[in-house]
Structures are given as structure tokens and as C-alpha cells.
Write a structure and sequence with these properties.
Blueprint lengths: L1 H105 L4
Length: 110
């Protein structure tokens, strides 16, 4: 009788251990499923954010690309006018500078 009770107790313990193992396995499966779902949701959120930022960049790029062309045109015009002013000054003062250089080279101070 004691052996039967011991055997029944062991069987009960084995059944409880088996049931606990099933509960742990089910919990692990649920954890893996939740992690997979969270990863998929995060990837979807990242993709949506990336698309939104790309769209914002395209809008910004479109708005500001025209300004760089305008800036280049203005800069080119400014440089051209400055070069023309320098050329005019060179033509105006060329003879005077040549005379001054010749005088300073040919004059001997003793």
C-alpha cells in the first residue's frame, strides 16, 4: 500500500512536471510571437517615418534648388561687373603707372 501511494505520488509529480513544462513552452511561444509582432510593428513604423522624411527632403530640395540657380546668376553678374570695373581702372591708369615705374627705375639716387 505504501508503495502504491508512493507510485501514485510519483505519477502525480511527473504529471505536474509535464504540465509545468507545457505551460513554460507555451509562455515561450507567446513571448516569441509578441517579440516578432513588436519587431514587425517597429519596422513598419520605421519605414513610414523614413518615407515621411524622404518626402520632406524632396520638398525641401525642390524649394531650395531654384534658389541656388538664382544665387549663381546673381553671383556671376556681380563678378562680371567687378571685373569690368577693374578693367576700366587698368585702362584708365595704365599710362600713369607705366610712367611712374619707368621714372622710378631710371632715376638714380646718389
Amino acid at each position: 500500500m505504501v508503495e502504491e501511494k508512493a507510485a501514485a505520488g510519483i505519477q502525480k509529480l511527473l504529471a505536474a512536471e509535464h504540465e509545468a513544462a507545457e505551460v513554460v513552452a507555451k509562455a515561450k511561444q507567446e513571448k516569441v510571437a509578441k517579440l516578432k509582432l513588436a519587431k514587425e510593428e517597429a519596422e513598419a513604423e520605421i519605414a513610414a517615418y523614413k518615407a515621411q522624411r524622404e518626402q520632406q527632403f524632396q520638398i525641401f530640395s525642390t524649394e531650395h534648388s531654384g534658389q541656388s540657380g538664382t544665387h549663381k546668376t546673381q553671383t556671376d553678374a556681380s563678378v562680371k561687373s567687378e571685373l569690368e570695373a577693374i578693367d576700366a581702372q587698368v585702362l584708365k591708369n595704365k599710362d600713369t603707372m607705366v610712367e611712374m615705374l619707368l621714372q622710378s627705375v631710371t632715376t638714380v639716387n646718389v
